[in-house]
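Feature request, filed as a ticket because there's no other form

It would be nice if the structure record came with a short human-readable summary line next to the tokens. Right now we just get the raw output. Example of a typical job, pasted below so the devs can see what we mean:
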Amino acid sequence: MKLHVQKLDTFSGHRDAVYTLAPGTEPHLVFSAGGDGQVIEWDLRKPDLGRLVARVPASVYALAFDAPRGRLWLGQNFEGIHVVDPAEKREIGSVKITASAIFDLLVRENSAYAALGDGTLVVLDVEALAVRRHVSAGDRPARSLAYNPLTDELAVGYSDATVKIFDARSLGLKYVINAHASSVFTVRYSPDGQTLLSGSRDARLKAWSVADGYALRQEVVAHLFAINHLAFSPDDRFLVSASMDKSIKVWSLADLRLLKVIDRARHAGHGTSVNKLLWTRHDNQLLSASDDRTVSVWRVEEA
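Raw output as currently delivered:
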């Protein structure tokens, strides 16, 4: 299979590294945030028009869009969580849950989960914006969150090189996977819920079988440096990985076969670390956020 990649645009509204992306209310709307504390909404139909929806005094590593309520959750490092109505550019509420970094956020039904730099997993009530639980499963940072609706499990990647699997409702610890040689920066469940994918500072991409108690199914030396994020194509056929080595790689999800490398030399890609990916349903456009202060927009399709 051959893939064709076309760079469509570059968004350059941020004044510092861009760390995170989140989908909006429609497939053509996306949010970005980063080291400048700005949260910008982009309309992929009108790429020159970025709209500032929030600004906080510290870096934002984590965004999560609560689609049923139309609310955007953002983690302000060393301060806490802010919940914003992006349509009205109005803050609905905030709660200081930590004095450390907030590395990831996940909103599901009436629960929000936050992965913290002190190793704590915090669970909040979405409507009340109040903390329900603190779960400590180690003293190294919790870096990434993923939810599996098939098994009602929550996967958390940690800087101690493990992935821990919790019951999403009771928060009981079900499995501890000694997954990598160093920090696990990203975990994602496959769209069918059968596989957990993990990426690490050790540059390895690994696939774990959910039905077999998270036994290792496949391992790939995927990048030269750390894997920062993983995402899926809208048709669930492809996996994309973002790396500190400045590249984006496209893989066949079925067998983790490398299909395409998107980098500076081949496609005028990013010049520094690629931190986050979001593959939208709008015209099959893939977005990448980088330390170079930009968000790039790509179209990836079969040649």
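Something like this underneath would help us a lot:
The helical segments are 264-267.
Residues 67 and 219 are 34 Å apart (CA to CA).
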